[in-house]
Amino acid sequence: MAFNDFFAGEIAAELLKQLFAISRKSCLCKSSADNLITSIEELLPIINEIKYSGVELSAIRQSQLDRFSETLRGGLELARKVLASGRWNVYKNLQLARKMEKLEKQVSRFVSGPMQAHLLADVHHMRSEREGWVEEAVKRMEVEEEASLGIIGAVGLDLGKSKGKKMIIGRDDLNVVGIWGIGGSGKTTLANEICKDNQVRSHFNDRILFLTVSQSPDVQRLRARIWGFLTGNEAMGYTNNLFVPEGKLQCEWGSGPRTLVVLDDVWSLSVLEQLIFRIPTYKTLVVSRFKFPANVVNEVYKVELLREDESMSLFCHSAFGQTSIPPTANETLIKQIVNECKGLPLALKVIGASLRDQPEMYWASAKKRLLRGEPICESHENKLLERMAISIEYLNKKVKECFLDLGSFPEDKKIPLDVLINMWVEIHDIDEEEAFAILVELADKNLLTLVKDARVGDSYSSFYEICVTQHDVLRDLALHLSNRGEVNERKRLLMPRRDAELPREWERNTDQPFNAQIVSVHTGEMREMDWFRMEFPKAEVLILNFSSNEYFLPPFIDDMPKLRALIVINYGTAEAILQNFSVFTNLANLRSLWLEKVWVPQLTNPTVPLKNLQKLSMVLCKVNNSFNPSVLDLPLIFPHLSELIIDHCNDLVKLPGSICEVNSLQSLSITNCHRLCDMPSSLGMLKKLQILRLYACPELKTLPASIGELIGLKYLDISQCVNLRCLPREIGKLASLEKMDMRECSQIMRLPTQTALSNLKSLRRVICDDEVSWQWRYLEKAMPDLYVQVAEKWYSLDWLDG
What region holds the RPW8 domain (predicted)? Predict the structure, then answer.
């Protein structure tokens, strides 16, 4: 059996399923299963390389790979035995565990050893001999300056062309396909390369029309160009005779000549819909930095950014006229500058050209300006930042403001979506639903990237399960646009990079108030003497990013009378001790507080009267000391608290009973707290509680009987509470409950009686394991609106699609 055939078949899918099942259910073999999953996924780049190389391996190499595939086939049989073994057969399980460890070592040796390097070398060597692509690419760089954006390495270009060709000539069922990517990523270059491809030209018999649509297109003229090309009257598009059938032209012609129309630089869905002619044998390729609905653009290839070696080649071509670093150049400095471009072809080309023939001191200055998010010269500002800014100017005012807010967060860090949503709600006068819609719009326009949990998108899913990332060039653009004007008058006062101290520009202007609405500080450890007095009469959001074990909260918080959202995030290796917590006594208008990786000080009634706080989030914090029940009166401290999030706080053992007296609480999320062993017996006092999440609390063994008194509860999540033994009978009293997630609760084998559960009149969806699903299905007969979903381990086999 060939190696790529093996991984493309059902065996790979079955093997991964078995390994995920073992990881979930077998304690002895869990570690080996997890490591095997990681190792197999590390093989995917090799598999894809073979797939898209189109080469045939030597008999020796194929034989080696076939032997390895047999090892994995044996692993599949072993995995089945592990799952079939009873949990009480300790001796047999120990034997199977040792065999799993042996299999893990065999696979790990292959992944980490030299064989994969030999394999890739063979692939590159044979492809180079067959096509000579790299040499042709270098020649094309020398001859065609604009084509330099397309030099993305043999693998990058081949992959893009292969994906594009598959959509265009390999799928007759797709009428409209797309190339999607961030501005400056080489989308147009890739489209041009596809159109030049001999196989594509032959397929369409050279009937290919390439049109640039742009932001303000003459739609009627473009329609005429396309219609004239289709009907053989190409002069129509250049005359006043603009007769074209009205509508979206979904004509049902007979079989005509194959035709490809490329619509480049498309900005508007309404314009695109007018330019699509749905006619058999006619195909449209849409090139855009925006993502359009699947019912309009049927399939899309997202252009990938360049790898490190590809980035270096393109940068060196622009800066030195060659594809490698010259011997006399400062290699360390060049690598630092290339790293700031983060694989974006346009940035590499523009910045490289801006530095060409400049002295080393100029390069060093340029690096510092890039680190601060500033343009290095007029050419860099005009050709890169202003070109990227076109995407921003096209947004409506509120969405543009939300994009600019992203510059408030550190580079190369995931931004918790909960933080963004809270901030946008507070300062842009929108609700959570509109804020989330703006986030999706920015993602569809390639201005940020969503990093999602597998279950995100379900009703009641929490925002802190999603993170946001952004390309550094887009972040630099947000900083560039935000830092215009006098420092005291800027709407956002931002530190672009982590520094040991506050910017000197800020210190020089402390004689006047700063009118910023958002203030973002990014430092290391800060002591009391490191701060200077600043006034912020209009500040509504303060973001404190730092990396240290101790942190003195800024005294100028006292001079932020309108502060509504405070975000404190420590990026250090251990929880930081916060000092000067007394500044919280003056935050009468604070509505949202996010604390991450810090020691939460002991909350005492007189020192922390946060009367208007509505949302409190503590993530990766040390919190147990702050919940001293002898001095803690939560309803007095947080009289209007509506949402409490405690996530990954491993020292939390028990919640204080006074939390059940916070009558305003509507959402309580205690997740990934591995030492939490008990919930307050008076939990039922929270009559307004609608959402209760107890996700991944493995030491939690029981739920209090008073849970049945939560008359407003709509969503209950107890998933991955692996030691939770049963559901209390009183759970049947939750008449408002709409959804319950109890996946991976392996100890719950029996449910309360059907009579007790029959009162769950509002229940519409239950997510559970297969072992207990049949008991819920009995209820489906009496409750026709109930849907029982059997949970499966989430994993991706997208790479099998080729």
Answer: 1-149
